[in-house]
Predict the structure.
Amino acid sequence: FAPLLVERAVGRAPARPAPISGLERRVAEIFADWEQRREVEAADAAQEILALRPRHAPLALLVARVAEERGDNWDAFDGYERLIERGGALPSIAAGAARAALRAGAFGVAECRARAALRLRPDDTTLLRLLAAARSGSGDRNEAVAILREAIALEPSSVASWLQLGDALFDGMRADEAVEAYRRALELEPGSVVEIPGFALAALVSDGSLDLDAELLRQHIERHPGSLDALYPVAVARLRAGELDAAERLLQELAAAEPESSRAAYNLAQVYQRRGRLVEARAQMQRFQELKAAEDVDWELHNGAHFRRLAAREHEIAGQPGEALALYLASAEEGTADVGDYLSIARLHLAGGRPTDAGAWLERLLEASPYDRDALELQVSVDRMLGRTAELERSLRKVELLERACSESLDRPPS
């Protein structure tokens, strides 16, 4: 809206028979403030006009966007939702609501808004990435990966989709596949190096498929100031370039900061070996083997949690709630349970007639994800069974917000 309104105000648009009204001129000034990065002033002035003209869609959109830019996620979400209520049935507005809800941790709301927009634009890869982020936030990383692969099939050259796929794969403990996704992003856009985590960059540098030149190194360090994860690929790059003094200094810094990580020990061994300091090289290699063995145990623990989760779901399907609950609780005790596991524990407790236990597990889950739809619906049942009237009203209000976001259609013409 802004360019059109500004052009009308300063006379660059075609002349119109009617003179510009005082309201139009003020709106143009507000958008000019926004374009010149005076967001606070623009938003405050827009609010004053909206108090008198609440259906002024361009100003309502400006207020929502300013709130989003400032990180006021719930204010932004509320602004986008008000636009939808007024008939602003545009996928971009639904995407804004999804984005704001996602940043606020309301993954269920974000998913509903993204799906609503996708009904109008099923091939929109930006909306697919929002939906994937919502599913990943809800703990379903496999579905997130599938959605991102769908987005990539529609737009194979999308660097953003490849980077997000790498993140989703790594979160799902599929590190090798994650590195390949990041590799593809780099092939499409070398500058995306600043978005790639250090473990993947180090892997790409180590196998010789990536040369971090001085400019890319500078960009990466600037993007991640003080980050050990950023220093590691820099150290590997220095080692490959034969700059042994710089590599040794960085790796010693990493080893001091991450004494339980095997990666610094392994590469320090390489530095010492190339310098002929064989006693130190052997000591670092022995250190590497000890740390790697400990890391493998930890990896097996997480991998075991994944298979335990599958077994628990099989028990649920087979009507064996006791066996399923025992497996979920084992993951929770180990610290490897995810949001879905907490939800399953609460559901099984509730089905077994233990609402107090169910409520305790839901409390943990809702602290991390306050607008998880399934958790809130379970919370309503718990509050009813325990006769907690005030808590029930709060839970019902949250469920009502979710239902509104998920059930409203976007097929109305925009106001």
Residues 47 and 53 are 9 Å apart (CA to CA). The radius of gyration is 27 Å.
